[in-house]
Design brief:
The chain is α+β, with helices and mostly antiparallel strands. Helices cover 30% and strands 31% of the residues. A five-stranded mixed beta barrel has the order 1-3-5-6-7. Helix 3 packs across helix 5. It is globular and about 55 Å long. The relative contact order is 0.18.
Amino acid sequence: MTQPLTLTSLPLFPLGTVLFPGGLLPLRVFEVRYLDMVRKCQHAGAPFGVVGLTEGHEVRQAGAPEERFHDVGTLAVIEQLDSPQPGLIALRCRGVERFRILDRHRLPHGLWVADVEQLPADAQVAVPPDLAPVAAALARVQASLREREAEAGHALPPPAEARDDCGWVANRWCELLPAPVEFKQRMMALDNPLLRLELVGDVLARSGIVP
Protein backbone atom coordinates (compact mmCIF):
# COMPACT_ATOMS: atom_id res chain seq x y z
CA MET A 1 0.00 0.00 0.00
CA THR A 2 1.33 3.45 -0.90
CA GLN A 3 2.22 5.51 2.15
CA PRO A 4 0.44 8.89 2.36
CA LEU A 5 2.56 11.88 1.40
CA THR A 6 3.61 13.92 4.43
CA LEU A 7 4.50 17.59 4.61
CA THR A 8 6.54 19.10 7.42
CA SER A 9 6.19 22.60 8.83
CA LEU A 10 3.18 23.42 6.65
CA PRO A 11 2.05 26.99 7.49
CA LEU A 12 -1.58 27.10 8.59
CA PHE A 13 -4.28 29.75 8.16
CA PRO A 14 -7.11 29.06 10.65
CA LEU A 15 -10.38 30.52 9.34
CA GLY A 16 -14.03 30.59 10.26
CA THR A 17 -14.87 28.92 6.96
CA VAL A 18 -14.23 25.64 5.16
CA LEU A 19 -12.23 25.32 1.95
CA PHE A 20 -13.16 22.38 -0.28
CA PRO A 21 -10.93 20.80 -2.92
CA GLY A 22 -11.58 22.59 -6.19
CA GLY A 23 -13.08 25.61 -4.45
CA LEU A 24 -11.96 29.23 -4.64
CA LEU A 25 -11.15 31.32 -1.58
CA PRO A 26 -10.59 35.09 -1.64
CA LEU A 27 -8.57 36.45 1.29
CA ARG A 28 -7.51 39.89 2.49
CA VAL A 29 -4.36 39.51 4.55
CA PHE A 30 -3.06 42.22 6.89
CA GLU A 31 -1.65 40.50 9.99
CA VAL A 32 2.15 40.44 10.01
CA ARG A 33 2.29 36.68 10.68
CA TYR A 34 0.26 35.98 7.53
CA LEU A 35 1.77 38.67 5.31
CA ASP A 36 5.17 37.05 5.73
CA MET A 37 3.73 33.55 5.22
CA VAL A 38 1.90 34.50 2.03
CA ARG A 39 4.94 36.18 0.49
CA LYS A 40 7.11 33.13 1.21
CA CYS A 41 4.50 30.73 -0.22
CA GLN A 42 4.14 32.85 -3.35
CA HIS A 43 7.91 33.05 -3.83
CA ALA A 44 8.37 29.29 -3.37
CA GLY A 45 5.22 28.26 -5.25
CA ALA A 46 4.23 26.36 -2.10
CA PRO A 47 0.77 25.81 -0.58
CA PHE A 48 -0.45 26.68 2.89
CA GLY A 49 -3.11 24.89 4.89
CA VAL A 50 -6.61 26.22 5.56
CA VAL A 51 -8.15 24.81 8.73
CA GLY A 52 -11.50 25.55 10.35
CA LEU A 53 -11.47 27.28 13.72
CA THR A 54 -13.14 25.62 16.70
CA GLU A 55 -12.09 28.32 19.17
CA GLY A 56 -10.57 31.77 18.89
CA HIS A 57 -10.74 34.33 16.09
CA GLU A 58 -9.33 34.76 12.60
CA VAL A 59 -7.67 37.99 13.71
CA ARG A 60 -5.62 37.73 16.88
CA GLN A 61 -7.12 39.74 19.75
CA ALA A 62 -5.51 40.71 23.03
CA GLY A 63 -6.67 38.46 25.85
CA ALA A 64 -8.52 36.10 23.50
CA PRO A 65 -8.05 32.34 23.89
CA GLU A 66 -5.45 30.63 21.74
CA GLU A 67 -6.77 29.48 18.37
CA ARG A 68 -7.93 25.89 18.21
CA PHE A 69 -8.83 24.23 14.94
CA HIS A 70 -9.86 20.99 13.27
CA ASP A 71 -7.37 18.28 12.39
CA VAL A 72 -8.57 17.96 8.78
CA GLY A 73 -8.01 20.86 6.40
CA THR A 74 -7.32 21.65 2.76
CA LEU A 75 -4.16 22.75 1.01
CA ALA A 76 -4.53 26.15 -0.69
CA VAL A 77 -2.47 27.28 -3.68
CA ILE A 78 -2.19 30.95 -4.55
CA GLU A 79 -3.62 31.75 -7.99
CA GLN A 80 -3.57 35.53 -7.78
CA LEU A 81 -1.87 38.00 -5.43
CA ASP A 82 -2.20 41.77 -5.33
CA SER A 83 -0.93 44.33 -2.84
CA PRO A 84 -3.25 47.35 -3.21
CA GLN A 85 -1.54 49.20 -0.35
CA PRO A 86 1.33 48.67 2.11
CA GLY A 87 0.45 46.10 4.75
CA LEU A 88 -2.41 44.57 2.76
CA ILE A 89 -2.41 41.61 0.37
CA ALA A 90 -5.46 40.43 -1.57
CA LEU A 91 -5.33 36.77 -2.55
CA ARG A 92 -7.30 34.36 -4.63
CA CYS A 93 -6.56 30.77 -3.65
CA ARG A 94 -7.79 27.40 -4.84
CA GLY A 95 -8.27 24.34 -2.68
CA VAL A 96 -6.41 21.21 -3.72
CA GLU A 97 -5.77 18.11 -1.58
CA ARG A 98 -7.11 17.55 1.91
CA PHE A 99 -4.76 16.77 4.78
CA ARG A 100 -4.78 15.57 8.39
CA ILE A 101 -2.63 17.22 11.04
CA LEU A 102 -0.17 14.90 12.80
CA ASP A 103 1.57 17.50 14.96
CA ARG A 104 1.29 21.27 15.34
CA HIS A 105 3.00 24.12 17.11
CA ARG A 106 2.88 27.90 17.13
CA LEU A 107 5.92 29.97 16.25
CA PRO A 108 6.98 32.94 18.43
CA HIS A 109 5.32 35.49 16.13
CA GLY A 110 2.01 33.62 16.22
CA LEU A 111 2.02 31.57 13.01
CA TRP A 112 0.88 27.97 13.34
CA VAL A 113 2.81 25.27 11.46
CA ALA A 114 2.07 21.56 11.31
CA ASP A 115 3.33 18.23 10.11
CA VAL A 116 0.54 16.74 8.02
CA GLU A 117 -0.31 13.74 5.90
CA GLN A 118 -2.23 14.27 2.68
CA LEU A 119 -5.54 12.45 2.38
CA PRO A 120 -6.50 10.59 -0.78
CA ALA A 121 -8.39 12.56 -3.39
CA ASP A 122 -12.03 11.63 -3.89
CA ALA A 123 -12.58 8.56 -6.00
CA GLN A 124 -14.34 9.36 -9.28
CA VAL A 125 -17.93 8.26 -8.69
CA ALA A 126 -20.65 9.04 -11.23
CA VAL A 127 -23.78 10.69 -9.88
CA PRO A 128 -26.41 7.90 -9.61
CA PRO A 129 -29.85 8.39 -11.19
CA ASP A 130 -31.61 9.03 -7.87
CA LEU A 131 -29.26 11.98 -7.19
CA ALA A 132 -29.38 13.38 -10.73
CA PRO A 133 -31.81 16.15 -9.61
CA VAL A 134 -29.13 17.37 -7.18
CA ALA A 135 -26.61 17.77 -10.00
CA ALA A 136 -29.23 19.35 -12.27
CA ALA A 137 -30.20 21.88 -9.58
CA LEU A 138 -26.55 22.82 -9.13
CA ALA A 139 -26.19 23.46 -12.87
CA ARG A 140 -29.23 25.79 -12.74
CA VAL A 141 -27.87 27.70 -9.75
CA GLN A 142 -24.45 28.09 -11.38
CA ALA A 143 -26.05 29.33 -14.59
CA SER A 144 -27.96 31.94 -12.60
CA LEU A 145 -24.81 33.00 -10.77
CA ARG A 146 -22.91 33.33 -14.03
CA GLU A 147 -25.61 35.59 -15.38
CA ARG A 148 -25.09 37.86 -12.37
CA GLU A 149 -21.30 37.62 -12.64
CA ALA A 150 -20.96 34.96 -9.91
CA GLU A 151 -20.00 36.24 -6.50
CA ALA A 152 -16.32 36.22 -5.57
CA GLY A 153 -15.31 32.91 -4.00
CA HIS A 154 -17.63 30.61 -5.96
CA ALA A 155 -15.98 28.01 -8.16
CA LEU A 156 -15.79 28.73 -11.86
CA PRO A 157 -17.70 26.47 -14.28
CA PRO A 158 -15.97 23.10 -14.59
CA PRO A 159 -15.51 20.83 -17.56
CA ALA A 160 -18.86 19.22 -18.36
CA GLU A 161 -17.78 15.82 -17.03
CA ALA A 162 -17.19 17.22 -13.52
CA ARG A 163 -20.92 17.85 -13.17
CA ASP A 164 -21.41 14.07 -13.16
CA ASP A 165 -18.91 13.48 -10.33
CA CYS A 166 -20.34 12.94 -6.83
CA GLY A 167 -17.49 14.61 -4.96
CA TRP A 168 -17.37 17.68 -7.18
CA VAL A 169 -21.15 18.24 -7.08
CA ALA A 170 -21.29 17.75 -3.30
CA ASN A 171 -18.39 20.15 -2.71
CA ARG A 172 -19.88 22.89 -4.85
CA TRP A 173 -23.23 22.58 -3.08
CA CYS A 174 -21.51 22.75 0.32
CA GLU A 175 -19.89 26.02 -0.72
CA LEU A 176 -23.23 27.49 -1.79
CA LEU A 177 -25.49 26.31 1.03
CA PRO A 178 -26.04 28.64 4.01
CA ALA A 179 -25.26 25.70 6.30
CA PRO A 180 -23.39 25.84 9.63
CA VAL A 181 -19.61 25.68 9.38
CA GLU A 182 -19.57 22.48 11.45
CA PHE A 183 -21.77 20.75 8.85
CA LYS A 184 -19.46 21.87 6.05
CA GLN A 185 -16.44 20.66 8.00
CA ARG A 186 -18.00 17.21 8.44
CA MET A 187 -18.81 17.04 4.74
CA MET A 188 -15.30 18.06 3.72
CA ALA A 189 -13.73 15.47 6.04
CA LEU A 190 -15.86 12.61 4.69
CA ASP A 191 -13.84 10.20 2.57
CA ASN A 192 -16.87 8.77 0.73
CA PRO A 193 -17.99 11.19 -2.04
CA LEU A 194 -21.25 9.31 -2.67
CA LEU A 195 -22.22 9.52 1.00
CA ARG A 196 -21.31 13.22 1.00
CA LEU A 197 -23.63 13.83 -1.96
CA GLU A 198 -26.42 11.79 -0.37
CA LEU A 199 -26.22 13.89 2.80
CA VAL A 200 -26.20 17.10 0.79
CA GLY A 201 -29.19 15.79 -1.16
CA ASP A 202 -31.06 15.23 2.10
CA VAL A 203 -30.46 18.87 3.08
CA LEU A 204 -31.65 20.10 -0.31
CA ALA A 205 -34.77 17.92 -0.13
CA ARG A 206 -35.65 19.21 3.35
CA SER A 207 -35.17 22.75 2.06
CA GLY A 208 -37.45 22.10 -0.92
CA ILE A 209 -34.65 22.84 -3.41
CA VAL A 210 -34.94 19.39 -4.99
CA PRO A 211 -37.94 17.04 -4.93
